[in-house]
C-alpha cells in the first residue's frame, strides 16, 4: 500500500494521538457536574431510550416468562413452605418495631442515622460495551436526584449515582473497575470488620473486598453490608456474601471475594436513597465552635 | 428528508445497542459470554465502504464522540477508535470488490479492529482487567458472530439506500 502513510497523513495521525491522550487525561479527572452540552445530549438520548426500552423489555420479559414457567411448580412448593416461616418472623418483627418505637419515644430521639428517603426509578439502558458498568435511570435533577446517592435493587446495594442531568441520571455499579469506585463496607458478625470494595474480578465473578486486617477471622457465607461511614451512603445495605478469602500479595491485609446479593445484570427497577441526616450533626458542630 | 435519513438510522442503531444490552443481557450472562452489539459501527462501516471515506470518517468521529459522552466516563477512546476503524476499513475496501461475502468479511474485520483498539486503550487506563485469552474467546468471538449476523440482515436493504445516496452525491 503505497499511499497508506504519506507525510501529511502521518502528521494527522500523530496530532490525533496527541489530542486523544489530552482528552483522556482531561476526562479522567473526577468531575462533579456535567457541562451544559453534555447534559443536553444525555437528556435527549434518555428521551429516545425511554421510547425504546418499553418494547424491548416486553419482548425480553416474554422470553423470560417462557423459561420461568418450567420452574413455577417447584418454586410454588418452596414458597408455600417459606410462608409459615414468614408469619412467625412477621410477628417477631412487629414486636421489635413496637419496642423500638417506645424506646425511641422515651429517649426523645426522632431522627436516626439509618433514616433515608426513597425514590423509585426505572432502568432505561445500560452501557453496551461491557467494560464500563453503567446503567441509566429515568429520574434526574428535577426529581431531586443528586450525585453520590446510593442505589439499591430489592435484593441489595448495587451502586451510586455518578452524574445527573435534568431528566435522567447515570448509575455506576459496584462491579465497575474505575479507580474512584470504592465503597467502605463491614463484614457482619460478633465484631464488625471493616474493609473497602474495589471493583470486580471477572475470572471469579465476584466483588473484590480488600484491606481487611490480617488478624480478622472471616468465614465463608458471612454477609457484607455498607458501613455508613463517610457521610454518603446509608448503613446496613446488603452488598453480598463472602465466598473466598485469601491473604494479599504482601501479607499485611486480607482480600475476600463476595458474591453480590443483587443480580447486577438483571436490573429493571431500582431505588435511589437519600440520607436524611448527615453523619455529623450540624447543631453538634455549632456547639463545639461555641 | 434524504439528508436526515442516514444520521437518523445510525442514531436509532446507536440507541438500540443500549436497550438491547439492558433487556437481553440477563439470559446471555448465564452462558458466560459477553455479546456486545456494535450496530452503529457496522452501519458506519457500510457507509465508509459504499459511499466514501470522508463520510465514514465523519460519522465515525460524530458517533464515537456520542458513545464516549453517553456510554462511558472517558472522552476520547471511542472518538479515536471508531474514526480510525472507519478509515482503515474504507482503505481496505478499495482493493476489494463489493459483494455480500466481502462486505461481511470487512465488517467483521472492522468490528474486531474496534474491539482491539478499545480493549487496548481501556487496558492502558485500567478500566479493563481481562486477560487476552479470555478477551478473545469470551468476548471477541461471540461479538463478531452477533455483528456478522446483523451485517447480513441489513445488507440488501441498506446497500440499496447507500447506492442511491452515492448517486445523488455524484449528481451534485
From TrEMBL, chain A:
Transmembrane segments: none annotated. Keywords: Cell shape, Coiled coil. Residues 123-273 form the Rod shape-determining protein MreC beta-barrel core domain. It comes from the Bacteria. Residues 69-113 form a coiled coil. Pfam families: MreC. Belongs to the MreC family. Involved in formation and maintenance of cell shape. This is Cell shape-determining protein MreC. It comes from Fictibacillus norfolkensis.
Amino acid at each position: 500500500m503505497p499511499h497508506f502513510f504519506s507525510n501529511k497523513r502521518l502528521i494527522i495521525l500523530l496530532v490525533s494521538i496527541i489530542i486523544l491522550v489530552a482528552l483522556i487525561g482531561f476526562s479522567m479527572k473526577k468531575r462533579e457536574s456535567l457541562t451544559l452540552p453534555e447534559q443536553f445530549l444525555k437528556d435527549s438520548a434518555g428521551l429516545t431510550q425511554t421510547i425504546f426500552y418499553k418494547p424491548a423489555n416486553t419482548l425480553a420479559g416474554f422470553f423470560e416468562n417462557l423459561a420461568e414457567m418450567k420452574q413455577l411448580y417447584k418454586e410454588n412448593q418452596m414458597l408455600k413452605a417459606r410462608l409459615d416461616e414468614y408469619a412467625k418472623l412477621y410477628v417477631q418483627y412487629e414486636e421489635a418495631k413496637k419496642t423500638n418505637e417506645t424506646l425511641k419515644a422515651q429517649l426523645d430521639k426522632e431522627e436516626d442515622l439509618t433514616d433515608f428517603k426513597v425514590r423509585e426509578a426505572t432502568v432505561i439502558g445500560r452501557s453496551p460495551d461491557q467494560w464500563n458498568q453503567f446503567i441509566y435511570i429515568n429520574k434526574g435533577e428535577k426529581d431531586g436526584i443528586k450525585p453520590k446517592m446510593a442505589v439499591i435493587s430489592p435484593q441489595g446495594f448495587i451502586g451510586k449515582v455518578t452524574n445527573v442531568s435534568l431528566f435522567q441520571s447515570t448509575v455506576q455499579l459496584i462491579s465497575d473497575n474505575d479507580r474512584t469506585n470504592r465503597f467502605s463496607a463491614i463484614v457482619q458478625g460478633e465484631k464488625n470488620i471493616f474493609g473497602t470494595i474495589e471493583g470486580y474480578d471477572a475470572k471469579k465473578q465476584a466483588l473484590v473486598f480488600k484491606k481487611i486486617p490480617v488478624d480478622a477471622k472471616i468465614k465463608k457465607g458471612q454477609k457484607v453490608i455498607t458501613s455508613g461511614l463517610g457521610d454518603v451512603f446509608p448503613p446496613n445495605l446488603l452488598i453480598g456474601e463472602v465466598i473466598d478469602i485469601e491473604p494479599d500479595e504482601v501479607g499485611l491485609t486480607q482480600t475476600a471475594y463476595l458474591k453480590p446479593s443483587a443480580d447486577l445484570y438483571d436490573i429493571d427497577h431500582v431505588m435511589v436513597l437519600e440520607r436524611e441526616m448527615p453523619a455529623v450533626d450540624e447543631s453538634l458542630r455549632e456547639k463545639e465552635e461555641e | 428528508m434524504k439528508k436526515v435519513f442516514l444520521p437518523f438510522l445510525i442514531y436509532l442503531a446507536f440507541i438500540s445497542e443500549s436497550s438491547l444490552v439492558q433487556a437481553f443481557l440477563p439470559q446471555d450472562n448465564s452462558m458466560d459470554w459477553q455479546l456486545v452489539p456494535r450496530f452503529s459501527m457496522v452501519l458506519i462501516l457500510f457507509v465508509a465502504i459504499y459511499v466514501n471515506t470522508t463520510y465514514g470518517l465523519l460519522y465515525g468521529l460524530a458517533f464515537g464522540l456520542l458513545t464516549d459522552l453517553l456510554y462511558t466516563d472517558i472522552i476520547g477512546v471511542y472518538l479515536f477508535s471508531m474514526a480510525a476503524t472507519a478509515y482503515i476499513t474504507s482503505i481496505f475496501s478499495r482493493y476489494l470488490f463489493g459483494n455480500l461475502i466481502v462486505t461481511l468479511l470487512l465488517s467483521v474485520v472492522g468490528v474486531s479492529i474496534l474491539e482491539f483498539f478499545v480493549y487496548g486503550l481501556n487496558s492502558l487506563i485500567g478500566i479493563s482487567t481481562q486477560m487476552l485469552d479470555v478477551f478473545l474467546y469470551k468476548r471477541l468471538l461471540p461479538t463478531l458472530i452477533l455483528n456478522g449476523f446483523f451485517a447480513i440482515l441489513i445488507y440488501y436493504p441498506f446497500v440499496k439506500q447507500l447506492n442511491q445516496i452515492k448517486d445523488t452525491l455524484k449528481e451534485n
